[in-house]
Amino acid sequence: MLAESGGGSLAAEAPLRVVVSFSILEDIVHEVGGNDVAVTSLVGRDANEHVFEPRPDQVRLLTQAQLFIVNGLGLEGWLTRLVEAARYRGPMVIATEGITPITTTETGGAAPSPDPHAWQDASNGVIYAENIARALASTDPGRSEAYRQRLSHYRAQLEALDRRVRERLGTIPAEKRRAITTHDAFAYYGRAYGVTFLIRQIRREGIKALFLENISDPRLMEEIARETGAGLGPPLYSDALSGPNGPAPTYIRMVEYNTDTLQAGMLKN
Residue 174's CB: how many other CB atoms inside 10 A? Predict the structure, then answer.
């Protein structure tokens, strides 16, 4: 993190009040905004934004926000209801703007829809950070240089992270880069880093690396493990960060932890 910029008038200014939809955005805003922002996440750590229902106090929180940042790509199905309830008329930024989404088709013949989990590719994390920095500077132009400097520092960290993941997984033979997860939250990770995430092929292909997401009910994966004899690995972090004392308290640590966990599991195949 870069040091906060000096200047008496800047130091005296109140932090920009930012509300975000979920914890991964909260961390990216914190990295780019530093002490110049006061950021609050509607969906907490280790929580599932897909089933989130805003509370009255969260409606009031958005009413007081100066900037609202969301993922987009259909992640926040409750977004329209919340904005209307809060009568929020301030700027709302979609952090995935400029990312080409992967499309998915649900069972039952539904039309293709965008996969919202774009943050699982660390190179997309750079786009998130750039969009967020641009939004902070636009809403709070007096501190735009501080946001720009922190973005530069954080971008370098994310680019280095992306290289590390590619190098780590590149040492695993392609036929071993396969894993089973409870829901399809890792398509961007798989495409970026050459990992195949499966569910139906577990018996036929003899996959031994099973992983539960931190927001998921463990019973399904435990049953799959019993039926197939595959080992159930530590939980992966898909849609939410861990608490501050957990293994994935930041976005960068989440990607690193998931990579370490996947690598260990795939090498057992």
Answer: 11
How long a stretch of residues is the chain?
A: 269
Residue type, position 245, single letter = N
Are the CB atoms for 123 and 162 separated by under 8 Å?
yes
Contact yes or no for 251/244 (Cβ under 8 A): no
pLDDT per residue over 183-205, tens digit each? 678 999 999 999 988 754 444 45
CA 103 to chain centroid, in Å, comes to 17
SS (H, E, C) 147-194: HHHHHHHHHHHHHHHHHHHHHHHHCCCHHHCEEEECCCCCHHHHHHHC
pLDDT (tens digit per residue) in 105-161: 654 556 789 999 999 999 999 999 999 999 999 999 999 999 999 999 999 999 999
Q: How far apart are CA 62 and CA 166, in angstroms?
A: 38
The pair of structure tokens assigned to 126 is 């750079």
